[in-house]
Amino acid sequence: xxxxxGFVGRQPxxxxxxxxxxxxxxxxxxxxxxxVYSEEDGLEVIKTSGRLQALIDIVSGGKELTGTMGIGHTxxxxxxxxxxxxxxxxxxxxxxIAVVHNGIIENYMEIKQLLQSKGVSFSSDTDTEVVAQxxxxxxxxxxxxxxxxxxRVIEGSYALGIICxxxxxxxxxxxxxxxxxxxxxxxxxxxxxxxxxIGHTRDVCxxxxxxxxxxxxxxxxxxxxxxxxxxxxxxxxxWEISAAEKGGYEHFMFKEIMEQPEAxxxxxxxxxxxxxxxxxxxxLTDEMIRSxxxxxxxxCGSSYHVGVVGKYNLERLLRIPVEVSLASEFRYANxxxxxxxxxxxxxxxxxxxxxxxxxxxxxxxxxxxxxxVNVVGSSIAxxxxxVLYTWAGPEIAVATTKAYxxxxxxxxxLGLYLADKRGCIDKKLYKRIVRELLELPxxxxxxxxxxxxxxxxxxxxxxxSSVFFIGxxxxxxxxxxxxxxxxxxxxxxxESYAAGELKHGTISLIEKGTLVVAIATYTALFEKAMSxxxxxxxxxxxxxxxxxxxxxxxxxxxxxxxxxIPETDPIFLPSLAVVPLQLFAYYVALHRGxxxxxxxxxxxxxxxx
Length: 609
Ligand code: AGP
Fold this sequence. Notes:
Strand content: 15-25%
Low-confidence stretches: none
Shape: globular
Distance between the termini: 6 Å
Number of helices: 19
Bound molecules: 2-deoxy-2-amino glucitol-6-phosphate
Strand order of the largest sheet: 3-2-4-1-10-9-11-15
Largest sheet: 8 strands, antiparallel
């Protein structure tokens, strides 16, 4: 994942850019660079492949660079290998214009060939360099005009930061890739992620697609593509920068696991008023809610797993069909939708490309979209008809944890809200579920107190080369997430399997030494779960079971090891039971010496660069 930071003001830009890039490091990158401009020294560009520290060392922390305007970038290669030449910023042939870019210029080959035929020579393999060269081609003494010309030519996605020698302004442009503007006391900022600038300002605004911004030391002006000035709404970032740092924990993933009780309080409690679920600013009317006849859930990865749990819970509460689809499949599946279909789009980042594309397809087909998103102002949040934020704070570890549990809570709350509006939920049940919701964070804290037991079991089983997560119904839905967590960060091959389906072939893979994590929290199917445990034990598997307090006794007689969670309404079982599975994956990965926060070849979410 690439990161952008930019600054123009009354103090040297380089240290600010380097500090901003430091806060973006968690996103994963393979090279870093900055460009700064001053009248005395002109445009200076320093970039290198490898760690940010290498760049910091080259420029001695930036203190020798006097320019008060600059742009910085961390790159995750897509076009061209990680190398110094392919690192950003990219510079026009005449050395006047520097560009940083997130996204993909889809028609870059065409533009490159055209410019080469006019004698322009390129120094990198990237798509981004065409933007710099094209800017030089159109430049007639006004960089803003040149940007407007270039945006007419390039196709694809971009968040762009541009500076030009001789001009005291920084230009930004956005399409399908996030870009944030920050209003500071001593200058103004640009960033692809708010963590890069909140050390300097909390007064920000989120650029929309098609907008161009001009930043100078005194202010920011945002324009539409026709260069008509726009009035942008400011947002205040109310979380602390420490929330984006490790806060004393060894890994972001562990910190975020531990934050879950608090994150759930933040998601749920402000939305409870006198025992009722209140959802803010929904444009979905009561009439629309009553006329709904189907819900589609679309998402990727862990967010999709939330959807699988959501299907069980929403169907239970609403008694209307719920179809859950992987966004990458949905977008090409010619799905059947109409105005009475509610399309629930789930995404932590709000920037996942497949999810965005699936949402657009759902809208095109006439569905009504409601997004559950963590990142405020993200693309999916902005394009959905309605948005509910999880309010979980920044999630930095690649392996999602608190986003999963808070998304689940919000889906459940949405289910209660819709069921109430449709008049299909018994008042006593509604009350009981709300009471359970209020008790959930404290129960989760109890689960977190069992961390040492989980750590011990991880030390016992971390060497297994094949792990099965099995369960039925809600326990099966949860097994998907347990398995993904383990394989994602520990690189152990793992499968999640509907326990009742094992006997139809896959049981042949279960043999002496196979670790089976048997999830048996759903009381209604506990006996079935027990018979599956007995079956896999008879084949020599090691069984680590996860069940509720009241079933611990009988499970202990059968499984090799047992983890427990407190009782709760089934609707909340996966949000509680996911915690031991997250911790198990975390400790297994720790034992195996894996890079937990940035597992190999994985970015936080699969968005455009
Ligand atoms: C899970 O740990 C992963 N980070 C991944 O599966 C993630 O949930 C998926 O890429 C979707 O991301 P999103 O929620 O930001 O859309």
